[in-house]
Design brief:
The protein is of the alpha+beta class. Helices cover 30% and strands 30% of the residues. Strand 4 and strand 5 form a beta hairpin. It binds coenzyme A (COA).
């Protein structure tokens, strides 16, 4: 298994994986095991790769079997949910610090192909993304929809911690944090 930052050539494979588990296109069979909600256009993938160093992938041979996004709030401000989170950052404290757009970044969405779940792919993807982003930020911030209990449990195993709950557009979410100086529990890289 290889974990690395994605390049432009990886975009079609990531896009295909995005489609498999995006809430708008996921199969009925897969949905109970979680879904992603942020949808990326090719232009947004390109900017994530080139300007943010923010697209981490897991590859098994030629196959991309997992991805994790991470980027500055400036990047995420194109999506309404993230504008809401940006406005709420000053009301959140993690590791004794009040959160700002400078001391945090937003991690996620993340998805692992169903054939590779329950393995070390998830912690290793998270770890690879953390190692890149810790160069720029001390704190990771993310959100999980309350109707995605598998993702919540998976992130709790990595010791990603709930900071608060919030509501947006009739959806209920947890906002979570992680200290980027901490090695990811369960990672083997
Ligand atoms: C989220 C994701 C990356 C986690 O990776 P993973 O390899 O599945 O994670 P793990 O198998 O290590 O952990 C999942 C945990 O949830 C548990 N779980 C599974 N279904 C569950 C449910 N309905 N309710 C509560 N817990 C559940 C599993 O038993 C496991 O816990 P355990 O190891 O204590 O038994 C992966 O499930 C995924 O890609 N899902 C689809 C996309 C997605 O939801 N992305 C996250 C958006 S925030």
């Amino acid at each position: 298994m290889e974990y690395r930052l994605a390049q432009i050539e990886d975009m079609p494979a990531v896009s295909q994986l995005q489609k498999l588990y995006h809430v708008s296109t996921i199969s009925k069979k897969d949905k109970p095991d979680g879904f992603v909600t942020t949808l990326f256009t090719d232009e947004q993938f390109k900017e994530l790769i080139e300007k943010e160093n923010g697209l981490t992938i897991a590859c098994h041979g030629d196959r991309v079997i997992g991805y994790a996004m991470a980027a500055s709030w400036k990047y995420w401000s194109a999506w309404p949910l993230f504008l809401h989170m940006i406005a709420d950052l000053p009301n959140m404290v993690y590791t004794g610090k009040t959160l700002t757009q400078e001391n945090t970044y937003q991690y996620g969405p993340i998805a692992v192909h169903s054939d590779y779940r329950g393995t070390d792919v998830f912690p290793n993807l998270f770890e690879t993304s953390r190692l890149e982003m810790k160069k720029r930020y001390p704190i990771l911030v993310t959100f999980i929809n309350k109707i995605n209990p598998r993702s919540l449990r998976a992130h709790e195993k990595l010791e990603v911690e709930i900071i608060k709950e919030f509501q947006f557009n009739n959806n209920y979410y947890y906002a979570l944090g992680y200290d980027t100086n901490k090695k990811t529990p369960g990672s083997t890289i």
